[in-house]
Records
---
Amino acid sequence: MERKKYPRILFRKRLRELKEDVNEIGQIAIQAHKNAIKAFNNYDKDLLDDVTKARDKIEELSFHLERKCISIIASEQPVAMDLRFIEACIKVGSHLKRIGSLSVNIAEAAKNLKGEEIPARSMEDLNHMANLVQMMLSKGLYSFIDQNMDMARELRHDDDKVDDLFDQSLENVTSSMFQNKDSISYMIYLLFIARFLERIADRAVSLGDRTIFMITCEKPKKLELKK
Amino acid sequence: MERKKYPRILFRKRLRELKEDVNEIGQIAIQAHKNAIKAFNNYDKDLLDDVTKARDKIEELSFHLERKCISIIASEQPVAMDLRFIEACIKVGSHLKRIGSLSVNIAEAAKNLKGEEIPARSMEDLNHMANLVQMMLSKGLYSFIDQNMDMARELRHDDDKVDDLFDQSLENVTSSMFQNKDSISYMIYLLFIARFLERIADRAVSLGDRTIFMITCEKPKKLELKK
């Protein structure tokens, strides 16, 4: 008789549940980022509260996800791709947690920009960045959920675009500060927001890298060092 | 006969090895941060290279640490404190990895400040912050290695000081920019360095929180949300 450690029906069910959990957390993170950008464009205390609540929810859910993953590893002793999938769930959970915190950072920075006059060019730069990042977040999440390597690989190129936009907005914000000294005290928050967006993009890339590692066993380190 | 799943000699040995691994990675991270600050005070390409190499080494070592931890969980099915210790090793590894990257960020930002005139006040603020952060890093690492709850708890208060210094340096840098428009293009890197230091301090706090959770089972989430 063939040694059939897997598939065990219950085990498969537990893996499916993990994927559903990751998807749930991912959707909350994507929404948190959207609301943070809304707050940047039109600050509103309720939006900041929404993003903060989302961050807390993500922390709680990813904490439970991690416990579940560890308990499955201990009780089922999965191997190969199954093991890598469970490990990936832990990592993806912690990336999503960080994306939640960075979204709160954006919404909080937006508070400092409320009512201030922001150069149209900087608004455009940052919204352009935010749109790319939003798309990268979805790609990162769905590349993992659907185990789609092509989508995961695209994220590296997307990230280059975000990096270019980051440099561009740094330059534009700096020259605006130069033209209008009075704007310095709040314009620095535009710099921070650009930086937060760039960090979220990095996390989206990490979601893709983890997906690639899960499927191919290609070490994320090598990928990460490419940049 | 008493059911003696633990202590098994080999199992204990493997746990000791994990602790040694964490300590090794921690020492490299502490040194990377020191070199990054040296580069800030007196930029030198070799220092940037050292920090980058340290970051790469940390990534490699923490990757192997994670594999080891997962394999111990799967093969030994540890419970309670032993399990929490192993999980903590994974988390601590990933915090140290992030500290390595942030150190590279500091050294790279320092490159942009090379040869520029930086106001003495800002140099003082940032060095003050860097010293506190250096001390927090050690505390974070040793609180985990020695399972010292008091040390772990102190980190929250240390972090408040770092946050105050961050606000202070933000204010000082902004007012220097205001006085000397030509400085804006490089002074923004001081803001970024302040932010990187603040992020490293947060990671040091996370090391302490993880230690507390490992010992008391008190959820890190609650602690994290306190700020």
---
Amino acid sequence: MKDLRLSATGLEVDHDGAPLQAFADTVLRGLGQVMLQNNSYAGLLFLAGIACNSPVFAGAALLGTLASTLAAIALEADRQMLRQGMFGFNGGLVGIALLCFLQPTPLAWACVALAAAGSTLVLAALQNALAAARLPVLTAPFVLTSLCVLLASTRFGRLQASDLLPTPGLPNGASLEGVATASTLGEGLLTGVGQVFLQDNMLTGALFILGLFVASRRACLAALAGSLSGMLVAWAMGAAEPAIRSGLFGYNSVLVAIALSGAALAPGRIAIACGLFATLATPFVTAASAAALEPLGLPALTLPFVLVTWTALLASRFSTS
Amino acid sequence: MKDLRLSATGLEVDHDGAPLQAFADTVLRGLGQVMLQNNSYAGLLFLAGIACNSPVFAGAALLGTLASTLAAIALEADRQMLRQGMFGFNGGLVGIALLCFLQPTPLAWACVALAAAGSTLVLAALQNALAAARLPVLTAPFVLTSLCVLLASTRFGRLQASDLLPTPGLPNGASLEGVATASTLGEGLLTGVGQVFLQDNMLTGALFILGLFVASRRACLAALAGSLSGMLVAWAMGAAEPAIRSGLFGYNSVLVAIALSGAALAPGRIAIACGLFATLATPFVTAASAAALEPLGLPALTLPFVLVTWTALLASRFSTS
Amino acid sequence: MKDLRLSATGLEVDHDGAPLQAFADTVLRGLGQVMLQNNSYAGLLFLAGIACNSPVFAGAALLGTLASTLAAIALEADRQMLRQGMFGFNGGLVGIALLCFLQPTPLAWACVALAAAGSTLVLAALQNALAAARLPVLTAPFVLTSLCVLLASTRFGRLQASDLLPTPGLPNGASLEGVATASTLGEGLLTGVGQVFLQDNMLTGALFILGLFVASRRACLAALAGSLSGMLVAWAMGAAEPAIRSGLFGYNSVLVAIALSGAALAPGRIAIACGLFATLATPFVTAASAAALEPLGLPALTLPFVLVTWTALLASRFSTS
């Protein structure tokens, strides 16, 4: 706790003599950064959205964001990045993912705190590794840390998987399953945003959209456009209707759209090409990632978002290559 | 099409006032670059070789090369690289691979055009990512794009796999299967070259060799030496006779041999060591890649060529490290 | 052999006119470097430890170290690194791994020599690839080369797997298996060190510890602390008792502890954080790697050591990022 007090004192300046308030604000911004928003009100609405679907997940998100932020403070991370919540969002997602796919034993809760804190070191490592390529870490630390703990749980008798974790199996061809209707698209539009935090809940998605609206009209529009386009491409390819309805083809497109709309690509052909590419490629990478992880019985989480965004960002510097 | 006309006009200079002829030449060079030949006659002979095995694959190769080249023109790619077909060969291979492993529905043809165009952005991204290591992208964009679409097809009801796509399974030890004879080696020598374009056809292989001969005696010799050495190493290790006969242990060695013979390594011990390494390692990496992708039911395509060539190129700069 | 004589002559200086003695010393240092010790007595004790568990493995380790060192001499590698055994340890481990997981046919022995020599080129390539990130290659060349040959063996009828190679399967949740007692921890403490060379033998482990003690008290303590902490974390998570007893959760922690204790991290919060991270993360990454390779029927070897150490080293430069 000494670390915290120390740094919190350090934070006083930005928050006239209210270190704990500053810290709470930092944590909320951390939750906001899951959708790339440096905005504590957005974070608060995201937390509310999670809570109205499951208080347990809200608690896990809070604990994870707290642990990863404290780890960053202990590491004396860059104060401005810290203050913007850049060291909170991966931990928050780790918290939700572990309690979503593991049974909520006390040991699982302990793993949330430790894994979230560990994700800050993974973030620090990735930041160094990606510095040369001038790429942001995005949610890669969350994906790597969570998949590692979930994989490890298959060897650890005290960590039991929940029913939500996919059963390991070999991918085999899909047949057309269910018929997508207007209700599919309507529900999927909201759940697609909700799934960014692994929440399959329309109201949660609506509150997330509200949070985005408060933080940035542009991000809000991008999120809706992403959720819709992801569904439409998946639907055109014949993806299973239940998967579309529950937003599984939306959330990665939501994040890609927000990230690229905020990446300030120089307007022009390359920006258009990258946008088109991301729109069409994300549902394919989403399906491919899910299939690639099927033999291990792992969810793709936001891996497709990371892969597509990195590709688009690198490609957008084409002219400079 | 405006992009095309614009750039084609830009190309006039190299082709005295015949933009479309210049474009056709660019597309043929793109096919030639599959075997690293900046030569439109080679490209034409490669296309003829594919056509005499399957007009459908020839059409797919042409569509893919066209789409990826047009994407590069739209992205205002470096004109000289463009003119040399450097933005065509990955798309051409994507076209063949998708129609080879997916059922040839209209949607599959649409995916060929989109995936081939997308492979140009993957290429642009990889070019940036590999710039620091001074490595060429080789056929990595083709491999990544094709594997992604093939994996995604297991979740997309409207994209059905063809009989050529391997069935997912767990790798288990091989037993000696069949006896390799002179006819095995004779047939494998040609099919090994044919398989560079996924064509299991001796006449096709012969036409490819002719194309290489026209473009570069050195590349032609390297290709034959690669196809032969790949087979011999695999045979010595007890690989299945049918796999050797159909060139599956040849095509990666063919490409590695062409690439390294053209890489102008400073003659000396390091060049010799890299050559020996590539000769012996490629069949192992080929077998290992096929086994590694078996649980996902995916073909290794030219992944072994990419991995071995990158390793050899990096190792060849050993002294400088 | 000409290469050898030449360079050995070159080595005379450091070893007053005894080229072969200098070469033998280089090979022993190579074995010592498996535990990051530039000390020929340590190497000798490691070799003795392997021999008293299995003369075959000792021979394989010697042949592998010899082959990879000769390859480095032929490549005119940096003489000082060479003399410190930096080009021997990956080959030595390749030798043990191949004879441990493949049946010891003459062809398997030939593969040991070739693969070990090949691992030197993989090392050269990785060294170039990692130079920008200022990361050591550690045992990555060993892991990549060995996994490649073991995977390839599933397609090569003349290379048969031994009983020690895990059977391919899909990972599924573990149940609490066995009860860890004091004897589990006592045995595991020693076998955990022995498993660094894939030796499940307490006496072997004891000799390894003696070797470390001779070379560096600090490394010796780090190894014991690593072996113990790895077991304790795995035990707390409910790992299978037989796995803990045979040191499978110890050896990666042993190597991580030695590597980080020798990495001379600037003392302070970051060093403490990296140490805590490595202590807790290594058993998870060990379990996760084993599970991730289960569908391919491959052992994780020292992949967890490489991944955790790279992450910790990159994270330790956090402040500088």
